[in-house]
Amino acid sequence: xxxxxxxxxxxxxxxxxxxxxxxxxxxxxxxxxxxxxxxxxxxxxxxxxxxxxxxxxxxxxxxxxxxxxxxxxxxxxxxxxxxxxxxxxxxxxxxxxxxxxxxxxxxxxxxxxxxxxxxxxxxxxxxxxxxxxxxxxxxxxxxxxxxxxxxxxxxxxxxxxxxxxxxxxxxxxxxxxxxxxxxxxxxxxxxxxxxxxxxxxxxxxxxxxxxxxxxxxxxxxxxxxxxxxxxxxxxxxxxxxxxxxxxxxxxxxxxxxxxxxx
Length: 262
Known about the structure:
Layout: E1 13-14, E2 17-18, E3 26-32, H1 39-48, E4 52-57, H2 64-70, E5 74-77, H3 86-100, E6 104-107, E7 112-116, H4 120-126, E8 131-139, E9 155-167, E10 173-175, E11 178-180, E12 186-188, E13 191-195, H5 202-217, H6 226-233, E14 244-245, H7 251-260
Parallel strand pairs: 3-4, 3-6, 4-5, 8-12, 8-13
Antiparallel strand pairs: 1-2, 6-9, 7-13, 8-9, 9-14, 10-11
């Protein structure tokens, strides 16, 4: 049983549900490779949003797997032969979801957060569709002194909207980091997606690119990850002049994120 299937008998409502009503099983599946810096933040965020957390450990060697064991997070291991192969990872996510059979499925990497002003569970509970997407922002390293990512990096560019939250159906597909429901009814959520991947240190980014190159050699389409090549040419640092401070756009959401990852 996942943690948030349990009912709290001490209150009249739980995350928008009245006592006696079964809580929806909302599961976030997170594939990870060497995410020791972020895994604790992501797990806290899931708990604080009323979301069950399941991890697919993709060959971590930095203590991430040991952290999952110590903190009793549900996970299994996935071997991709040293590659960052989205095709294999996407298939594994759907295979795992078919075993879990959630009411709603969320796919978020360890450094990607779907942030609302309330909790994500409540946002999903109110949804009138079966696929939710948010305006998406990429956070960049713009020369800051490294520190807690949520209190250090604020400069962003808006990206394409990604549908990464979907009401479960066995015929759902996942490609290019986007779900497709067989009977789609897409709605825009009241929040944002915010991705901290490009704030990670140069060494980690170079290793990630090397793993992606191995995936290309194994047949993954080159356009999956070409942004890493462009970022490498910038030496993984961007100019603030071409970015926007997210605190000037969504101050409440950023404050809430900072609270929920703790």
